[in-house]
Specification:
With 370 residues, the chain is of the alpha+beta class. The chain has one domain (4-369): Glutamine Phosphoribosylpyrophosphate, subunit 1, domain 1 (4-Layer Sandwich), CATH 3.60.20.10. The protein has helices at 67-82, 90-104, 156-173, 180-193, 288-291, 348-360, 365-369, and strands at 4-7, 13-22, 46-50, 52-56, 59-65, 110-117, 129-133, 140-142, 148-152, 209-215, 220-223, 227-235, 240-244, 247-253, 261-268, 274-282, 305-314, 317-326, 333-338, 341-346. Strands 1, 2, 3, 8, 9, 10, 11, 12, 13, 14, 15, 16, 17 and 18 form a 14-stranded mixed β-sheet that branches. A hairpin with a 7-residue loop joins strand 14 (247-253) and strand 15. The longest helix is centred in the middle third of the chain and has 18 residues, at 156-173. It starts with a strand and ends with a helix.
C-alpha cells in the first residue's frame, strides 16, 4: 500500500510514505514496518526512497503508486518544471501534467498530491494554499480540527479512517496537547510499525511515514525533527506490564540536506541480542551514481520526540493506544550518541510504569479500556 496526505489545519502538513524497494526481488521485502526478527545473514534488506519532491520553497509534491511510474514521473519532472509557463499557478501546471500522463500512458499508476503556498508577508499569521490531488474515491474530505484534507494512494482509505477517528476524539476530549498534529503523525507511524503479525503484502505503507510542515516564519517547507518509535505490551485493565516489543525505530536526518536521511531499526536476534539495521532514505532526485558516495555523517541525532504504541490485551482482544511525548519528559529511556554510533538505554520497568500512569490518567481511558 502507498499513501500521501495533506492536512490543512492548524498548520499545513504533508505526509508521505517511503518507497520500499527490495534489494533482491526473489526474497521477501523487509522494511521497518514488517521486520520483526533478523538473523543477520541477508545483507542489505531494502532501499527506502523518499516520495517527496520539494519543487521550490513553497511547493511540495508527494507521490503514490507503482515504482516504475513514479520513477518515470520524477526523472522528467525537474526539466518540465523548469520549462513550465510561469503564468500558470504551480498546482494548475501539476494538474495538466498529471492529466496528460494519464491520457497518454496505458495502465498509468502514479498519483500525485501537491500543495503550493501563495506568497505571504512576514507579518501575516495566515496564508493561502493551493492544492491538487489525482482523483480517487478518498482524495478529499473535511474535518473539524484538521480542515480540508487530501489523500491519494491505495492506503488513503485507511489513513482517512485514522484521521477521522482522531478528529472525533478531539471533539470528545479536546486537543491531545499543544502539538497534536505531531502526536497524530506519531500514531500513524505506530499503526504501521507495530501492526501485529501482518504479512508483508498487507503492510500499510512503505516502511515509515515522513512529514513536512510549512513554516510561516521561514516561508518554506521543513521536515519533522528526528523521531523515535517503540511499543510496550500490557495486559488487563490495570495495565500489567508484559514486555517491550522487539523492535524500535528511529527516523533521523541531517539538517538542511534532503539527501541525508536514515531509518535506524533495532531488532531482537534469535540469541536475544539486539541488532542495529540502517536504511538510508534516498531523495528521488539523487542519481544512482551519487548514492555510492553519499554518507550519513552527522545524520544520527538524539530524537526530539518519542511515540509509544501500547498493546493492551483485555479478555482475549487487543486494544491499541498511541501517544507522543517530548524526549525530555519520558522516564526510563536514555539516548547516547558517539559519532555515528547510536545507542538506546531502556529501563523497562521504570518506562512501563511511567507510561502506564500516563494512560490511566488520560481523560478517555475508560472508553479505551472498556
Amino acid at each position: 500500500m502507498t499513501v500521501g496526505l495533506y492536512i490543512h489545519e492548524p498548520e499545513s502538513m504533508m505526509i508521505s510514505d517511503c518507497l520500499a524497494l527490495p534489494t533482491d526481488s526473489d526474497v521477501q521485502l523487509y522494511s521497518p514496518s514488517n521486520i520483526e526478527f533478523y538473523d543477520g545473514t541477508n545483507g542489505e534488506l531494502a532501499t527506502l526512497v523518499s516520495k517527496f519532491i520539494q519543487a521550490d520553497d513553497r511547493t511540495l509534491i508527494a507521490f503514490a503508486g507503482a515504482y516504475r511510474d513514479i520513477k518515470e514521473f520524477v526523472e522528467g519532472f525537474l526539466r518540465l518544471w523548469s520549462e513550465r509557463d510561469l503564468s500558470m499557478r504551480p498546482m494548475e501546471y501539476l494538474h495538466d501534467l498529471d492529466y496528460r500522463l494519464r491520457q497518454t500512458r496505458n495502465s498509468w499508476s502514479c498519483s500525485v498530491l501537491g500543495a503550493s503556498v501563495l506568497p505571504a508577508k512576514p507579518e501575516d499569521t495566515h496564508f493561502t494554499v493551493n492544492n491538487y490531488a489525482s482523483l480517487s474515491e478518498n482524495w478529499t474530505f473535511d474535518t473539524n480540527h484538521f480542515g480540508k484534507c487530501f489523500a491519494v494512494g491505495s492506503g488513503s482509505s485507511e489513513l482517512r479512517k485514522i484521521i477521522e477517528n482522531t478528529d472525533t476524539r478531539l471533539d470528545q476530549y479536546g486537543p491531545m496537547g499543544e502539538n497534536f498534529l505531531y502526536e497524530t503523525l506519531g500514531a500513524l507511524n505506530g499503526a504501521a510499525l507495530f501492526a501485529q503479525q501482518e504479512p508483508v503484502e498487507n503492510q500499510k505503507w512503505g516502511g515509515l511515514l515522513q512529514c513536512q510542515i510549512y513554516n510561516l516564519k521561514a516561508q518554506k517547507w521543513i521536515r519533522s525533527p528526528p523521531w523515535f518509535h517503540m511499543c510496550i505490551l500490557y495486559k488487563g485493565k490495570e495495565l500489567t506490564f508484559k514486555g517491550i516489543h522487539n523492535k524500535t525505530v528511529l527516523h533521523t536526518n541531517k539538517l538542511g540536506d534532503e539527501n541525508a536521511s536514515a531509518v535506524v531499526t533495532h531488532v531482537m536476534k534469535g540469541d536475544g541480542k539486539r541488532q542495529m539495521i540502517i536504511w538510508p532514505v534516498y531523495s528521488p532526485f539523487l542519481p544512482e551514481e551519487q548514492r555510492a558516495s553519499m554518507t550519513l555523517d552527522d545524520c544520527f541525532k538524539i530524537p526530539n520526540a518519542i511515540t509509544f504504541t501500547a498493546f493492551v490485551e483485555i479478555d482475549g482482544s487487543i486494544k491499541v493506544n498511541h501517544r507522543t511525548y517530548h524526549v525530555d519528559a519520558v522516564k526510563g529511556v536514555k539516548f547516547e550518541k558517539k559519532g555515528n554510533e547510536f545507542a538506546t538505554r531502556i529501563n523497562e520497568n521504570e518506562l512501563a510504569e511511567w507510561l502506564r500512569q500516563r494512560i490511566l490518567d488520560d481523560a478517555g481511558v475508560s472508553d479505551f479500556l472498556n
